[in-house]
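PT: before anyone asks, these are the final sequences, not the draft ones from last week. 736 residues across everything. Please model them as a single complex and drop the result in this thread when it's through.
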Amino acid sequence: MSRPVRLLIVEDSEDDALLLVRELRRADYDVTFECVDERQAMSRALASGTWDLILADYSMPHFNGIEAMELLQKSDLDIPFIFVSGAVGENTAVAAMKAGAHDYVMKGNLRRLVPAIERELREAEVRRERKRAEEELRRSREQLRALTAYLQSVREEERVKIAREIHDDLGQSLTALKMDLSWLKGKLSEDRSLQEKAETMMELIDSTIHTVRRIAAEARPAVLDNLGLAAAIEWQAQEFQNRTGICCELKRTLNDLQLDQNISTTFFRIFQETLTNVARHAKATRVEISLEERQSNLILEVKDNGRGITEEQVYGLNSLGILGMRERAFLVSGELQISGVPEKGTTVTVRIPLNRNQTDYDKSAHRG
Amino acid sequence: MSRPVRLLIVEDSEDDALLLVRELRRADYDVTFECVDERQAMSRALASGTWDLILADYSMPHFNGIEAMELLQKSDLDIPFIFVSGAVGENTAVAAMKAGAHDYVMKGNLRRLVPAIERELREAEVRRERKRAEEELRRSREQLRALTAYLQSVREEERVKIAREIHDDLGQSLTALKMDLSWLKGKLSEDRSLQEKAETMMELIDSTIHTVRRIAAEARPAVLDNLGLAAAIEWQAQEFQNRTGICCELKRTLNDLQLDQNISTTFFRIFQETLTNVARHAKATRVEISLEERQSNLILEVKDNGRGITEEQVYGLNSLGILGMRERAFLVSGELQISGVPEKGTTVTVRIPLNRNQTDYDKSAHRG
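LR: through. Structure below.
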């Protein structure tokens, strides 16, 4: 079964060109070829055709083999290039290989031509396959990266929706119930058991309203949407301190931030995840938090005095929480750094650029 | 600046070996080398060293070059292999290249040796770099894949937690309120305005209980955990029909399923997402649903009579919802197929194997 090969020959002698073609046909190649002997013709040939192989003579009246090779190298095409050297001798041919030719054969001894061609065609095919595989892998990675972004955003939307439904629908009903009960209580007779029951009901409604607020705030704190990032961070730090007993100190906060919601959410969720990690893993007794602007970047730093995360824990395959934080920051052109010192604690730093020009890809941050 | 090269020479003549080393040193290589002339020594050398290059003579008293090459090929090492052929002539050398040697040079004319070595070292370096890049890419993709799984599972946990909190904490309080109110209402005087207020409050509590149930069910339907997948699918189909007016027909369902929760959740969430897609994109009036077991696979099929999804929509870069469904199925060793026929509708099929052996990696499915 003959193998097809598309051959570009750079050669001024038609006889020599046909000799090469014959050599390949004898080795059972099904050759289609074009022969060129000057720069423009070769440029055109490179631009218009898809060649498997280039065989080039060294010296021609209007062109030479080194120029031909440079033309190929500039084109960015990955085509095996083999010199077929005649009069010029091996020193020149060796120089051509140093300059990047894949091989050379002497016109007087073509026995190496076919095995050299076979090697180069094989290796070019391997390169092509690797490139295809790499592109497939890259595409798949980009898709998964987009999927993680999508999953994080639908999760956030879901939380916002649930928080609003709980807060608005249930909160409103409970407030109405409370008012109704208050009215009813005023009209009740002085019967002590009735008054006590109404009192119990009032307390139950209050505690239910409290539960509604807590569940809604756990899903999506209203303070983040109403009062902004700095207030939300302060609120979350306070909640965390109350719940865990780990002392939270806010060192610096900016209060007049007007951030895109996407960026606020990113900072806030990374902050929450960081506190969760502190509570779960750090064995810390104290956390220092700062939020400040430096050189058009908004920077959140969370520093604990715990046992210190290791490099392995930061980059390990199981650190999906950290990877998720990193991907979140990446989505708003920011970055996340985590460093630990054994028994001295861990510092998480999130840096997100502000004040950037707004383009289609870059519309996530602006300041008022 | 001399370049280091670790050279394995397969050669019985020390003089010939030193000639090769000298040739490389003249070309400014900093050569470290080992010389072997029989199989076991070469095996040991391959196993213990990291070689940049192998130069092999063809015939030796106890070994030959083709055997040496086969030994290399079996080792799975990617090391350039060049024949240095003496007496045996070019035909044999050509055959060696056909068998996979990267090149050959004749002992009588070593001028091509250095350029051939340079080409092979360069190409080996390119292969190594590509391999590193590919591994990095693969690792990054696997991490992102794990991250999407993690995000989906934490989202599910969050939904379960919210559903339980809402249902249990709020539901319980409201039921208590209802009982209290009922008691109080019985003790109220016959004053019509008091009775009416109590009646209104009763209705408000009922509708709030209803809202609580709806919000909890939207986060995570209790029927899925209490009555299983088939019931949850039936419930969801009914809900969907009520909400959208799109007629849902359950063709077949299995009722005695005992599934791992992971698998139930996967099926159920894919089913929900499929219905969401039908409502958003399909322009369908009717959906047929079947859930059945075939050849140890549980198969869910959702078929609408809408305008039919296109290949491009299934595999497009923006089809993150579908990619998410695919990844979900993949996580429980299942697969998702989507096919559309223009103006005839779309069919989504999820197939997940049951009854598999349980291993650490494979503990997601079992049947009771």
